[in-house]
Write a sequence for this structure.
């Protein structure tokens, strides 16, 4: 029996890695993408021990030609992608908007918005043609409302929501489903990246609260993908118990 195929971008850490492992455990074959070949190879080897097949694609979702070349190189064995998890994304900096770093802005917009669009544009036509498939976009609670110092990141995640909603409308005449997952505080290397490697500052983000894990988000992704064909989990907001919104967190001493 042919396994279903799940493609995960940004698969070598955090939510992406958790999704790859969760879907492998559910019997999916995996297409994993990321920028670091050594981490891709390591993850592929570990996933293959689960008894599934793995195709590793090393490229940057911001590079449209690299995306095009990678997708064009997917052979017939891998081309019928059942689930696409657009996970590649990041936050950079926490400065006031009027003091923001242009390079940080470009990094977030090019990855979180344009990178997601690059992959979506290249994978979803096949889903539409086959009249089946599922796109799961990793958005954020940050897309619901801006918070201090996060204007550009919040704007990119608001864009993910709008892009997800628009795609859902565009494919409504098909059996392709679209889900936007919106995590709150998830303890991954997210904050370390945001603060450009400042581990102490990153650790303070999660002080006094039990944050979500990548596995928690992967559980929801797999649930959405496993729902009956007539059920479309359009959007899910996932927060830690003591987080009420993007800016309201009750920390216990």
């Amino acid at each position: 029996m042919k396994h279903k195929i799940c493609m995960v971008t940004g698969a070598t850490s955090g939510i992406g890695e958790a999704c790859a492992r969760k879907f492998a455990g559910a019997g999916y074959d995996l297409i994993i993408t990321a920028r670091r070949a050594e981490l891709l190879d390591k993850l592929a080897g570990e996933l293959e021990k689960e008894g599934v097949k793995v195709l590793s694609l090393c490229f940057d979702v911001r590079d449209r030609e690299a995306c095009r070349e990678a997708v064009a190189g997917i052979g017939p064995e891998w081309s019928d992608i059942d689930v696409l998890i657009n996970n590649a994304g990041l936050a950079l900096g926490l400065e006031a908007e009027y003091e923001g770093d242009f390079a940080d802005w470009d990094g977030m917009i090019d990855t979180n918005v344009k990178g997601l669009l690059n992959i979506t544009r290249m994978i979803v036509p096949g889903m539409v043609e086959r009249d089946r498939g599922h796109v799961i976009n990793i958005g954020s609670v940050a897309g619901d409302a801006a918070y201090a110092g996060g204007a550009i990141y919040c704007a990119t995640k608001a864009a993910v929501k709008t892009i997800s909603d628009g795609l859902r409308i565009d494919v409504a005449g098909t059996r392709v489903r679209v889900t936007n997952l919106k995590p709150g505080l998830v303890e991954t290397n997210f904050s370390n990246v945001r603060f450009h490697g400042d581990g102490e500052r990153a650790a303070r983000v999660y002080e006094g609260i039990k944050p979500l894990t990548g596995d928690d988000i992967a559980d929801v992704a797999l649930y959405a993908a496993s729902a009956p064909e007539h059920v479309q989990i359009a959007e899910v907001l996932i927060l830690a118990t003591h987080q009420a919104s993007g800016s309201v967190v009750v920390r216990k001493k």
Remarks:
- The chain has a mean pLDDT of 96.
- The longest strand covers residues 176-183.
- The two ends are 53 Å apart (CA to CA).
- The longest helix spans residues 102-130.
